[in-house]
Amino acid sequence: MLTLYSYPELFGVADNNGYGLKVFAFLKLAGVPFVHEHVFDASAAPRGQLPYIVDDGETVGDSETIIAHAIAKYHLAIDAALSAEQRRTNHLVTRMLDDLYWVMSYSRWKDERFYPAFRDGFIAQHPQINAEGFEKAKAYNALRYQYQGIGRYTPEQAYARGLADLQALAEIVPAAGFVHGAAPGSIDAGIYGFVANIHYFPIPTPLKAFVDAHTNLVAHCERVHAMVSGSLQGRSPDER
Q1: Cβ contact 4:51 at 8 Å
Q2: What is the mean pLDDT of each run of 10 residues along the chain (240 residues)?
Q3: DSSP secondary structure string, 4-63?
């Protein structure tokens, strides 16, 4: 059976990282049976990054590569009917979500207005991580932000980028159904991975205020959440 390795759940979301939740949701929506292993240490992952999968002894990292692997190996039809234009939309939205990731992460780890709530909520749910360990992770992320560039922005500048990304999503996501019609596709899994990590977190960042004010984003998130949360697939280790 395919095993997904990704970061732990938080605030009722199966992975507190947008990329891991994207893969989790995709596998659920596509009907691929899998076991979900939550890990903190990414040292065993390809390039030291989560998520990754082990599938019949083959290790595959990177969320896009994982999805492509699953589609090819299991002959998944989830995106088979998409037009060339729809595939271009998927590509562009996927790249935009890469940009949104950094602003989301910034809001949790760098913005001192919201970091304490994130830290305390995480430790409350995962007490094996103490405050000292969290501070080390905070310092590590500060270096990542500096090298990537988002760490050189003021909070207002950083959130302006994220809000622009969310505005584009709000103009793409329909009030009913899914991005390309009545059935969800891989792009819906990707959008859910990031929006759910904003909407379900009780941390009042500007990103959350924007999402919660847009009923189409909330409804889409909750539709996908209901579909991927009620299946017996993706069992955690203690549910096997």
Answers
A1: yes
A2: 96 97 98 96 89 96 97 97 98 98 98 96 93 94 97 97 98 97 97 98 98 98 94 37
A3: EEEPPPBTTBS-SSHHHHHHHHHHHHHT--EEEEE-S--TTSGGG-S-EEEETTEEEESH
The DSSP bridge pattern shows strands 34-38 and 2-6 to be parallel
CA distances from 27 to 50, 57, 80, 122 (A): 16, 18, 15, 25
User: What is the residue whose two structure tokens read 């909330």?
Assistant: 218
pTM: 0.93
How far apart CA 32 and CA 147 sit, in angstroms, is: 37
Alpha-carbon distance of 209 to 148, in angstroms, equals 25
pLDDT of residue 230: 67
**Token pair listed for 80:** 């088979």
Q: Are 146 and 106 in contact (CB under 8 A)?
A: no
